[in-house]
Write a structure and sequence with these properties.
- The chain is of the alpha+beta class.
- The protein has three helices and four strands.
- The strands form two sheets. Strands 1-2 form a two-stranded antiparallel ribbon.
- Strand 1 and strand 2 form a beta hairpin.
Length: 85
């Protein structure tokens, strides 16, 4: 299939971005649809998603005390209940 250079509009910033012939061919080969976001909006979305991924290190709250994640709290309460029996 022959592709032509196209300009698409980003769904986040509404700016036009280039969708090159090479990108169209690669996307079709991999089974992707047309991109909806420009590179900068896509990278900022990935960065925000990466920031919310699980981090096993305990966090400190405003008072400097370690904050346990909910799954750690649940495991701790299960272990405590087992020890009490």
């Amino acid at each position: 299939m022959r592709y032509l250079h196209r300009d698409l509009d980003c769904c986040d910033c509404n700016l036009s971005f280039a969708f090159s012939v090479d990108e169209q061919g690669l996307g079709a080969e991999l089974g992707f649809e047309n991109p909806r976001r420009c590179r900068s909006c896509r990278s900022s979305l990935e960065d925000s998603r990466r920031a919310f991924r699980y981090d096993p290190a305990p966090r400190l709250n405003q008072l400097g005390a370690a904050v346990l994640h909910t799954h750690m709290k649940r495991e701790l309460s299960i272990a405590t209940a087992i020890l009490r029996t």
